[in-house]
């Protein structure tokens, strides 16, 4: 995705009106990119003439979009950051500073916290999994006036790329298995999901979205925010730990659920297998899309795990 970093820096400076007319230089670092959809860039602004290691005057994150979705994300973040404020909220949401409709980018607060993937290597890492659970429970507990209600059929379109039916079309040998998984997912939803369970949900909750700073858990990347079954976030995180930290998944999941269910009712657990299966299917389609090394074997294994979760 092509972005005019210099032009955006100029627009940010004009909007922020930083420190009068003092000359300022900027440094940009690309944090992530989803080809054809968005690019995430960290900007740091320094007094001109200062040494490279001097403290910046201002830091922010700019998210560049191919379409107008950044406007809604900015509105969501503005609302959530106000709802989850000290002293009552462990969860912290970065502030939306503004949205630039002309250039289709959103400017957000830069989070200074320590990334959770670094914290889990510490001897007391269990504490951070407990805090992650409590923070997610806090998100699910707070009624907010933003977010569209999304059901399983919506999640299949919004979150899985390519759609599982396209995977079945491309690899006919998977057709019957994918049809069976989709049928079972919908049957599970009809049987166990009540619209009264709908709550604010992140829909991409995992360790790389989490930071710890100022005694709070910071959660970033709100592009997929919606209202839906909170068990989706729980199931997604459990699968993330299962696939990314297999050697310590059991203890990590135990700590996470301890934190989550200290604030949320345990009856949600009966719906988690539905979203574990959904997430394994999501990962199978991702492996097919990326076609990295041994992708066929990985797709096969993930489909098997989706089937097993629904038994």
UniProtKB/TrEMBL annotation:
InterPro entries: Aminoglycoside_PTrfase, Kinase-like_dom_sf. Pfam families: APH. Residues 75-257 form the Aminoglycoside phosphotransferase domain. This is Aminoglycoside phosphotransferase family protein. It comes from the Bacteria. The keyword Transferase applies. The keyword Transmembrane does not apply. Keywords: Transferase. It comes from Candidatus Manganitrophus noduliformans. GO terms for molecular function: transferase activity.
């Amino acid at each position: 995705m092509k972005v005019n970093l210099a032009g955006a820096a100029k627009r940010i400076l004009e909007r922020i009106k930083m420190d009068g007319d003092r000359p300022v230089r900027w440094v940009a670092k690309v944090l992530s990119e989803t080809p054809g959809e968005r690019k995430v860039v960290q900007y740091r602004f320094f007094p001109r003439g200062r040494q490279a290691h001097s403290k910046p005057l201002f830091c922010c994150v700019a998210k560049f979009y191919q379409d107008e979705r950044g406007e809604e994300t900015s509105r969501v973040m503005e609302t959530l950051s106000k709802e989850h404020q000290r002293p009552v909220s462990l969860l912290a949401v970065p502030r939306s500073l503004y949205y630039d409709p002309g250039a289709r980018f959103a400017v957000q607060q830069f989070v200074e916290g320590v990334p959770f993937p670094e914290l889990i290597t510490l001897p007391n890492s269990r504490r951070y999994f407990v805090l992650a659970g409590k923070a997610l429970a806090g998100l699910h507990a707070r009624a907010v006036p933003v977010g569209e209600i999304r059901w399983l059929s919506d999640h299949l379109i919004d979150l899985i790329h390519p759609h599982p039916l396209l995977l079945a079309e491309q690899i006919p040998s998977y057709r019957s298995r994918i049809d069976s998984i989709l049928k079972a997912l919908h049957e599970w939803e009809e049987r166990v999901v009540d619209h009264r369970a709908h709550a604010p949900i992140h829909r991409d909750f995992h360790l790389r979205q989490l930071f710890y700073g100022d005694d709070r858990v910071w959660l970033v990347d709100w592009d997929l925010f919606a209202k839906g079954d909170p068990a989706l976030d729980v199931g997604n995180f459990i699968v993330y730990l299962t696939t990314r930290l297999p050697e310590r998944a059991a203890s990590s999941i135990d700590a996470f659920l301890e934190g989550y269910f200290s604030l949320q009712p345990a009856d949600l657990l009966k719906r988690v297998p539905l979203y574990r299966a959904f997430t394994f299917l999501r990962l199978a389609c991702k492996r097919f899309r990326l076609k990295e090394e041994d992708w066929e074997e990985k797709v096969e294994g993930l489909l098997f795990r989706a089937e097993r979760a629904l038994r």
